[in-house]
Amino acid sequence: MIISPRVLDAPMRDPVFTGAAMAYHPFHAHRPADFPMSAFLAAAQPSFFPALTLPPGALTKQIPDHALSGAAEAGLHPALTRHHQAAHLRTLKSLEPEEEVEDDPKVTLEAKDLWDQFHKIGTEMVITKSGRRMFPPFKVRINGLDKKAKYILLMDIVAADDCRYKFHNSRWMVAGKADPEMPKRMYIHPDSPATGEQWMAKPVAFHKLKLTNNISDKHGFTILNSMHKYQPRFHIVRANDILKLPYSTFRTYVFPETDFIAVTAYQNDKITQLKIDNNPFAKGFRDTGNGRREKRKQLTLPSLRMYEDQCKADREGGDSDASSGEPTPGRDASPLGAVSSPLRFSRLSRDEKACTDSDQELDPREERCARASSPGPRAPSSFSPRCEDEVKDRPSLEKEEDYLESRKQSDSIFSIRNTEKDKSENRHRKETESSKKEVDGGVKDGFSPLMVQTESPSHFSAGHLQSLAFSGLHGQQFFNPLNTGQPLFIHPGQFAMAPGAFSAMSMGHLLASVSGASGLENGGLSAQGTGSAPTSFPFHLSQHMLASQGIPMPTFGGIFPYPYTYMAAAAAAASALPSSSAASSLSRSPFLSSSRSRLRFSPYQLPMSIPQSTNLLTTGLPASLNTGSESSKSGSRETSPGLDQNHTSGAGQSTHSPKTTLKESINELHNIQRLVRGIQREGAASPSRDSPK
Amino acid sequence: MIISPRVLDAPMRDPVFTGAAMAYHPFHAHRPADFPMSAFLAAAQPSFFPALTLPPGALTKQIPDHALSGAAEAGLHPALTRHHQAAHLRTLKSLEPEEEVEDDPKVTLEAKDLWDQFHKIGTEMVITKSGRRMFPPFKVRINGLDKKAKYILLMDIVAADDCRYKFHNSRWMVAGKADPEMPKRMYIHPDSPATGEQWMAKPVAFHKLKLTNNISDKHGFTILNSMHKYQPRFHIVRANDILKLPYSTFRTYVFPETDFIAVTAYQNDKITQLKIDNNPFAKGFRDTGNGRREKRKQLTLPSLRMYEDQCKADREGGDSDASSGEPTPGRDASPLGAVSSPLRFSRLSRDEKACTDSDQELDPREERCARASSPGPRAPSSFSPRCEDEVKDRPSLEKEEDYLESRKQSDSIFSIRNTEKDKSENRHRKETESSKKEVDGGVKDGFSPLMVQTESPSHFSAGHLQSLAFSGLHGQQFFNPLNTGQPLFIHPGQFAMAPGAFSAMSMGHLLASVSGASGLENGGLSAQGTGSAPTSFPFHLSQHMLASQGIPMPTFGGIFPYPYTYMAAAAAAASALPSSSAASSLSRSPFLSSSRSRLRFSPYQLPMSIPQSTNLLTTGLPASLNTGSESSKSGSRETSPGLDQNHTSGAGQSTHSPKTTLKESINELHNIQRLVRGIQREGAASPSRDSPK
DNA sequence: GTCTTTACCACCTATGTGCCAAAT
DNA sequence: TTATTTGGCACATAGGTGGTAAAG
């Protein structure tokens, strides 16, 4: 039985953008010393979106021989068969007359069982100055794409809540409010863009993505705060070129079982042991007869080591990440592993106060905060709250064993747990619980579109915004002044408009934010000289903006016909200012009726500067634009005057009706669009202002 | 003092294409057993051009931290800074309104001194079934490009002559006629396309290119014949997309000091020692006190080990090949190394009979055949013949020492040796020596454009074709029936037409040939399913066609202002049928007057199928189209009705006058173009027939 | 028999891991 | 002190080298 992944999808699949730059400000108490002026300047940049990162030296490995097999048989010349070149070809293909074909992406998490094992215990990911990979590698199988269409796959990691954690008494518990967020970075899969056929051929791995705690990282690694909880997200964008990303629809998928707490040193021995048992690179620490290293006291779990075995098994299978280093688990990582259940997943409450001062708690109720959301077997109530101090409905399982048991109950894909504890969420907005309930409404079918919404702190959990989304205040959301000079949020998806104006703008921002670091792998290309095509891409998108972290192999191999129902989706790229209350919006797709309450996750925010300064990139402006819920509420949708029409067909969503209603919102969007400027050409980016910096 | 690289440049910088596919036929006596049917089918494909190969898993490595420095300072977001993503950005830039800016590429070989050390002794490159890198890594520094324009950099390795060699009495000597050529493959630098600024930022390394003797290689490695001499070539193409390669101008650069003899096992101990001393991966064989391995009897040369030291030094410098494995020598590999002298270089005589039966010679006169061309210090006579039995003017130096000494004399960039022994060259054509002399004419200034010409066997040396080029038979060359069902050759450059019709067609072929092997790095994508956008790219360009061999880091870092004068150039991609006499043509640029006799090297040939079958991809057709010399002879040029106008500005050549004369040729070109079809859109490839296969 | 090719090996580089002690 | 973070370490994987002996 296949589980339907939870997809965060805006009604019209419009991307959701949130401000990213400025998310961390150099003067915050947190590691100020480690924040050089250069970094500050970068942060000061009008980069409201997470930086786009791509595997840099990823092109290191060779394609396994067998990977190329078939070419000759096909009568093809046994010639160039490598990743990079393949990408070029893909690009070439994109030049063909494009015929929009409906797609209906189904995404499943690879090695789900391994992830579950970690999740049960409370996944921890080490973050180091030099960058560390995620161990259970984030890998997904995709199905339902338009074979001929080209897609860009991305991944980012957002805060799961706004709490800081501590490992006390063998369990994680909230230890106060989250530290200022780090600059958001969007990691673009190195094989992007590639055809749907290519992406579906084999699991797509993101193991090149690296985590770091170095706020001034120049590699494009994902910067995280230690002792904070994060949620990885996966995005599918139908676009031929990264250039088009701004005008494209983002379909976001979240796998609750992949959340984790970033640490600089493992806290839970069980996690350590699980890592050692499954990560080939940690073999040296296994107690294989010959008294291996100390420490590891044979902690629990026979640690199946299933992952590694799988790696071995399909090492030849050609993974999408054949690059050196990562022994990727084959698509058959495990019988079930192959079919991950991308639940809509809980989330939640990154209410500024939720975790704020619970620094001294140690309350047993909270210990489970760190480990809540789970992939329950269709149990509509398997979702659990994250951080919040008030993890009321969360049974505090003292023993992981117990917890595991309880978790086994929930395996259904769409099981959503209405934790009913997001009371604090609405604090900033006057949204009512009604909206929440509305969301909880239809958690039945194996496919529940998850709403994408923007949130100031860009936490994963946007519980408080949720209400907003359903409150129908969307129209009012626009240009709502922010509390504290925070950027306004724009959620294109909320307007159900085709990936046009708003989307374009949003991505423009996103890319703009990306303009921070870079230089090709080649080396030190100074920003000045290298910089780039300021005139062609909005917000001065320079090559420096892009950093890759290594490239896994392209996705090939077999086709995975998983009958998932998915949700098209809202985009999700943006940065958030340091956790502060800001206007946030939530978009809701028409399908949302089948979604559950906590189904929305907080995508990045899209900060909008007030019209006063034509420069939208200026952060901290009083005026903000929030995208409110739209679909479920208004039921009407409107497409913005298509800026990028070729992206509208994206998902095979049934809701597919751009240009419907919500005219006022559109007008506002247009205004915003005007401000953003430079988004005139359909598909191509028109020269917009570079980042004012 | 900077040395001007020798550039092979067609008058109008038109690419030179030669037939590549079918170059090896499965039924040849040579290793027939190792030629599976699949390979045969591939060969049978209408791939007349060398397969395009790109580093596959190249995206493995991370960009050195420092490489990204500057981004933050520039106010950019310290985000994505990786190779792949950078490439995407480059692509984005390309979408900007393109303004043709004159460029004047200067190319210098990196680590020239190291190459010289090997060259003096007689470079040997091991080729293995699994693929072996070249040791002195082929790396160049580029200057003079249009910073904003995008370029595709390529490399290929062509036969230096048509002789087979043997190492006898401690020296290489001709041992008969060359074996059938292997399928030609063009290796596209994985960072392609990238802006001129990016390419110039740091040396561009091609260390991911691998050599193999496995005729059925599916990795896209360059297939060579053991005991044969080869000459690596470097090509610069101004194009935004690989798709445009067919319509673009190729500027080819040859560095004589990089030629080598392919071997399966080292023959000359001195080479072995030099490799051990300089290749970091061979450190284990160095006799560092602790009695290292046997064999190495401390053979001569303290073997400076300068290369490795350099590698260490600039490991941090961010090379264009930061990918794992290759410890690239920094840009400062050596004081002089950085400034290689890409001499026009000799060449020569791949006359079918030249080396044909000299299998029993052992004549001391020939021993030096293997090591002739050298980078002499502007000594116009430093060029030496390659293979030919009649290496008359080549002093047979019994001792390498002596040879080295003699070589030290020649360091000038443009020293060209008129060996005056290409008598046999003109055998096939009735060209007179006059043309040869004309070439020898001006070897004075530090910049001598080298002619690119097509030759049936696609050997590096095309001496016999040279005469043809100047004979003014170009017009007649078109559609000349081939002797033995060999493909016809088309040399767009000869027509001085802007990279339009012909070029397009040519590259179409080239890419078509590429369609053989592949699958992305991701793994086993079967040709069938993956295949690709047959409708968009002429000749069925599938992703399988492209294979990369690993990706070095993008080129960044500093800018190298080397005042080289170079030559724009003829393209060079194609396959050659097994050495057989076929119609060949030679293009000559107006500058050729300053070139020397043996300055031309043989680029690949561009096979043209006769019009009878609309399918140009059919090999062995009686009708062929050869491009004859054009510039020097006719002095008039004509541009084909621009198919791809944006490529015309390419080089900063003075000869830059597309659309001049030679109308008839153009008409023919149009006809051919028509046949090729699908080349209607300027820049973008229009859907043309897929390879009829 | 000679010459060339192949497979396998030990020895390198490069980099991913968790451990541990020292630093913060 | 306690809680985290840092850098160096030994041990993995992945892959580049030439040597060597055995195979063509």
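qc> Residues 60, 126, 132-133, 135, 265-266, 272, 275-276, 279-285, 293-296, 324-326 of chain B lie near DNA strand D (CB under 10 Å from a C1').
qc> done
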